[in-house]
Queue: 2 jobs
Job 1
Amino acid sequence: MTYRTMPKVELHTHLEGCAPPSFIRGLAAEKSIDISGIFNADGTYAYRDFDHFLKVYEAACTTLQGPQDFYRLVKAVLEESASHGVVYQEAFVSPDFCGGGDVAAWRDYVAAMEAAAAEAEAEFNITLKAIVTCIRHFGPDAAKPTALCAAETFGDFITGFGMAGGELAGRPGDFAYAFDQAREAGMPLTCHAGEWGGPDMVADTLRDLKVQRIGHGINAIKDPALLEQMAEAGTVLEVCPGSNVFLKASGGWAQHPIQRLRDAGVKVTVSTDDPPFFGTTMTHEFEMLAKTFGWGDEDFNDVNQNALAAAFCDDETRTKIAKRLENR
Ligand code: ADE
Ligand code: ZN
């Protein structure tokens, strides 16, 4: 079995961040939107650093203007993921980019994305669940209608709530109202922390937002007591090594803390975050983990099992995906 064909469970992707540049250029041409400035001469996304990345990301999102565009996006993204052996994927979706946080508009976007996911499941044999995320640098007030959108559409397809965006904007506790709203609706929770912030950001996120999973969390490596707390609580990290290396949130692959986090007893999983932005795929992540840390079948099975156990899905889906992992 090759790295490409090994089955993979991926918990941390941003739906719009999975859009190939050619897909976004196509939408821009259809709508006569000039976003040529966000591309390099070779057609890849162009940005200088993380803050600029967020701006380029939002510029790309301006080409996605209605439910039909999101339908096409979901189909394109899942076809690509399935071609890299991904059997189950979770993607962050944002009402802020889909109708501006209006619940009625959001329902139409969800219906389109869910229909596309059902078709992709039949065509490409991959399951998608979606996690509604508020955007941290839009502020705590914008997070409230986003959490309402999440709670109103929580079900078979929208299965969790979280937060992405500029991590250094405010403290986790500023967003407690939105996370409380989602938790009270019964939603499982995740939040980006410790990608740019220190271990204190991870600790405060766990304490104030009561999430089960942390997006990235790599800077927890700097605090042994926090590692022990996370290992004991079973906190799951959605680690995205290629993203961290590309954005310089960590040193190179050899310096990346993913193996040291595992050695400390923390449950880690592996994801791509925004693959075309970071020149990665799940195949590339697995290849680099094998090359850098000597990971083999047992290690890949371990991260897949961690991901499946922590997936925000119903038990029927979990059982179905477990069978696909067994038959690898
Ligand atoms: N939005 C898209 N990608 C992101 C990342 N890596 N961190 C925070 N917000 C994001
Ligand atoms: Zn992310």
Note: The pocket of zinc ion (ligand 2) is lined by residues 12, 14, 164, 192, 215, 273 (CB under 6 Å).
Job 2
Amino acid sequence: MAENGTPTLGIGMVGYSFMGAAHSHAWRNAVSFFELPVVPQRVVIGGRNADAARATAQKFGWGEVESDWRALIARDDVDLVDVCTPGDTHAEIAIAALEAGKHVLCEKPLANTVAEAESMTQAAATARERGVRSMVGFTYRRVPAIVLARRLVAEGRIGQVRHVRAQYLQDWLNDPAAPMSWRLEKDRAGSGALGDIGAHVVDLTQYITGEPITGVAAMMETFVPRRPLPGDGSGVATLGGHVTGDDVPMGDVTVDDAAVFLARFGGGALATFEATRYATGRKNAIRIEINGSEGALAFDFEDMNVLHFYDATEDAQTAGFRRILVTEPEHPFVAAWWPPGHLLGYEHGFTHQMVDLVNAIADGRDPEPSFADGLRVQRVLAAVEHSAAKDSAWTEIPQ
Ligand code: SOE
């Protein structure tokens, strides 16, 4: 019980780097800004590097540090395991947690392979029968403008969806002296730009349109095949950086730097996708444009409080893209924060994710995106890799 008598939910988090910080901050803010039926408590944090885990624990107020993730899962005071590790450990940790009866939040992409994602989805289905819930962390689903976009499509405001244009553009690898990190190792990350950021736009476009991607034709490229190893040898470099000097040890990049593909959606829409970490000048541009028979939507995360909406049923003389500032209390999640025009940022999506997850657990509902949703994304990623390896051959996605 929390001090005010509200029941608590003990969180055990595995991982402490970029996503560990984003999740820690979100667990903390969820309680401060939202009325929750159960209070998440930051009980214990763990990970490979105990010093790094300790630093994150101190910064974000975790109660204890546990270097063995199995011991973390086994604790009676842990009700939910938050998996913020690189993809190569998602399946093992998430399945063990589900089998131990712990709810699971797992960072995206769900896994490194379709086979792993299938095992995780199966474990989630089995655990669900015992009331254990699971969710995959496609956090951008909780950006208010994205939720509004989905709502407008579902309400028929843009009619039949015909075109989807989706890009996830970053540039933190454009410098060849930016060091190696686990995100550039296939064994650890599964794939490169495709899984790291392409997975987000695959998920977002399926979420907004409510339709699955049914087939793809793809190209992938690795522009810089070898990179300097990070100076401290820790392999946990954050995004970017610049390592120079004589005889700097180098490592092999074993993933794609960029992926581009054509796709078709279940409802017949044609789509183009682009995911790259070499889009000079673009820092975190998730750009989605959707054209429908009655209107269109356009979004760019670098201006994330805004949704552009074109209503084709309006008088042609005055019709035009409308710039909606998604900061009104009527907009999703916004009422809990600031007055209109007082903007939200990157971290708010994570807080909204925790809020939705906690509410679903308290209500005995399944949170979304589910592991099954994560598996659907994984199948698209696998089809993209397959197509690229076969000279862009059209590749259907099993539904
Ligand atoms: C790195 O490209 C990264 O941190 C991704 O891993 C995240 O999913 C994305 O939100 C921001 O960029």
Note: Residues 18, 170, 196-197, 239 surround alpha-L-sorbopyranose (CB under 6 Å).
